[in-house]
Amino acid sequence: MSTSGPLRDATDATLVARAVDGDVSAFEVLARRHGPLMRVYAEQVLGSNVESDDVVQESFLTGWRKLPDLEDAARFRPWIMQIVTRRALDRLRRRRHHDDVDTVERPADPRTGPERTVETRMQLDAMWAALDRMPVDQRRCWLLRETAGYSYQQIAEELELPTSTVRGLLVRARRFLAAEMEGWR
Amino acid sequence: MTTDDLPLPDDDLDGHTIEELADYLDRGRTPVDPSIEGSAACRLAMTNMQRLRELSVGALERRADAEPDREAGWVDRLLEAIRAEVRPGRDVPVAHPDPRLQLALTEAAVRGLVRRAGDTMGGVVMGRCTLDGDLEQPGAPVRIDVTAGLVYGEPVEATADRLRRTIAEAVERHTGLVVDAVDVRFDDVYLP
Within an 8 Å CB–CB cutoff, is residue A127 touching chain B? Predict the structure, then answer.
């Protein structure tokens, strides 16, 4: 698929404008640019890498359809992340009402990537490892709060938990991560 | 909230809770709350929170960077679904010497033509494109509004002129429309 030069470096705002006009290749660049992060995020929220591809694909399709509603085209990433969050939570809800599955495969070890300093990389790997070790209910609350920007009440509603439980999970998550990352300051 | 649910109480934050501080951070620390900003414990807690928040996103990004191509098949499946949904818009007639033949381009295709004309001209990255006028009428005058990013170092006026001419020529060559005006607005600047 030849994604021509100018589009690959175009800003999200430009790509959104073009995609709203029906430019599929512009949307493709958005999907390739933000898809990988959304997948990792969905994996972590779901506690599973089995469903994350589907969630991300469905979310981008929804995104394409709703793109004209996106008011600030430069805010594509947080906007699509909200859609991914919603989709992932739908899955969780469905799962919860079938049987309790939080016992799913975890993704494999992180590999090395380019373009960050060694120390930053190691710190981020340590953070990843810490997130990975965290119990899935804590991690889910944490990511909804800190990555997707959900309020305590929204998290409680979405996960069908009392707000006080969410508060407790977040306290634990924060303590856990703070302790794990203590050595990195 | 009951104490049963909260076996790990928040640290002493001069009467504030972590939850309040998180909301305050989300609001970009505005309006300024002097009782929070005046508390060293709160400021420290917020610094730590901010750090963990950035590290969380950073860790996910790093992970995503490390596996850019892990099963990229979903993008192809996505694009297939999307192509079926492109809104075609109005039909724009295309002149043909044989009056018995009727040809038309969809409005979406004409916008694609405009974008392509600009992108291949060099010096700009095309953005939005709006076609205004009675497109379904052969020979009707139309106005075309486009936004574009200007490549840094290109002269603004000369590039806008060149873009106007390029677009008008492309549209008139491929459709039966008469281009009345092309409005160009540069809304971004790109490094070459």
Answer: yes
Minimal Cα–Cα distance from B78 to chain A, Å? 6
Is the distance from CB of A159 to CB of A151 less than 8 angstroms?
no
Contact yes or no for A136/A47 (Cβ under 8 A) = yes
pTM for this prediction:
0.78
Query: pLDDT category, B168, cuts 50, 70, 90?
Result: very high
pLDDT tens digits along B23-63: 888 888 888 999 999 999 899 889 988 889 889 989 998 88
Residues A15 and A86 in one domain: yes
A97 and A126 assigned to the same domain = no
The interface predicted TM-score (ipTM) is 0.77
Phi/psi at A116 (5° precision): -125, 155
| Partner-chain residue, chosen from A112, A147, A164, that has the shortest CB–CB distance to B66 | A112
B173 near A CB under 8 A: no
- Note whether A104 contacts B: Cβ–Cβ < 8 A: no
Look-up: residue for tokens 């092309």? B182
**Domain boundaries, position A135:** 113-185
Mark whether A102 and A28 lie in a shared domain.
yes
Please report residues of B whose CB lies closer than 8 A to that of A40.
Answer: 60, 63-64
Structural domains of chain A, count: 2
Question: Within a domain: residue A6?
Answer: no
Q: Are residues A54 and A130 in the same domain?
A: no
